[in-house]
Amino acid sequence: MYRYLWSNGPKEALEFPDYTFEEHYGQTIPSFPPREVLFDYLQGRWKKFDLDRFISFNHSVKDVTYNANSDKFSVVTKNHKADMLNKAEEFDYVVNCSGNFSTPNVPSFQGIEKFPGRVLHAHDFRDAVEFKDKRLLIVGASYSAEDIALQCIKYGAKNIICSYRTKPMGFKWPSTISERPLLTKIEGNTVHFVDGSSAEVDAILLATGYLHHYPHLEDQLRLTGPNVLFPKELYKGIVWTRSGNGKFLYIGAPDEYYTFTMFDMQALWALKYIMGEVKRPERDAMQADMDKWLELQAKNKDYHDEIDYQTKYIMDLAAETKYLFNLDVAKMFHDWEHDKDRDILTYRDKAFASKFTGNMSPIHHTPFMQAMDDSMECFLGSK
Ligand code: NA7
Q1: 195 and 50 share one domain
Q2: Residue 383 pLDDT more than 70?
Q3: Cα dist. 227→103, 181, 297, 301, 358 in Å?
Q4: 97, 130, 194, 221: which has the highest count of C-beta atoms within 10 A?
Q5: Number of domains composing the chain
Q6: pLDDT, mean of residues 337-351
Q7: Is the pTM above the cut of 0.90?
Q8: What residues make up the domain containing 159?
Q9: Whose CA is nearest to atom 3 of ligand 1?
Q10: Distance CA 217, CA 248 (A)
Q11: pLDDT digit string (tens) for 239-251?
């Protein structure tokens, strides 16, 4: 999470019903908090339920294999404190929750190896101040490109060109941000684009997304493919169907609008499934169910369709787990998209009401584009 990162969606759309922001902060707070404030909220929840005791810190999973004869998984972990591998342990089920936004997708462009300025992936972007007074090319047209372009302008970049492969983001950008089609080649500091235009830039940032990358899993357990709302071969978006006899699960594999609450719903479904309260059907029926979701996904035309699609997915998991709360925040997401279309510079200055307390959040004391201090004290108004 880079410096100066503020939530790009309303916090009310990711709020836990069993642990609201108001419970954590003892007051209502604005809807788009910076990273420290969100992290503090997450910490509050896992402290409240004392979850640390279930986690072996300083251990990484090195190898997971499925043995069809024993119908069990063999898992090798490394103890980093002792700097040694532990003996393989056997498990009946394995749930992979290692995330899919940490291994950069790094495309190559002709001449990039001789570009004289800095080249980096969004993954390694840390501090927008680095690009003060610079001309920056950002490749990509999704959330990272949008947010990093805004951050860099906010902290003084001279101008930014965002280069898209499929379609432009299309926001009403300030005059310092423009969009061009894909770059074709780079000569010195000059970047050439598909439409025949060119521009001089000082730095290139690849906001080109991430790869599903699970080197700690044996091949037959590895999910691959693009970052989509319903990845292939996962029954209910959770159960790996290629291998593992329905006992290898993924949490957090879909691309997301719903974030914290989606992980929570997937985790609850996985728990009930492992406990036998939720059952998976025969292979054909599982395939038919996955096909249904994949066909629906193919029909999504825009963000609004995607929001409704993921809402439907969450509601499906909620129904199967007989979840008590209503997590449907589709309207909030639609409003947020409309706010972004109206003005990409001010959408974070809006306020939303909590679905679970009913209370309206206050508007932040300083408009986002002028709020240079992203500390918790400043955000909460005590500084
Ligand atoms: P995303 O949302 O996966 O988007 C990746 C972007 O990178 C997308 O616009 C792609 O273009 C573009 N891309 C990928 N490969 C290339 C190549 N080879 N050339 C040009 N452009 C390319 O990643 P983000 O980092 O923005 O967001 C990550 C997550 O954070 C996001 O999913 C949210 O959950 C929050 P495309 O549009 O496919 O043509």
Answers
A1: no
A2: no
A3: 12, 21, 12, 16, 34
A4: 221
A5: 2
A6: 98
A7: yes
A8: 105-209
A9: 209
A10: 11
A11: 999 999 999 999 9
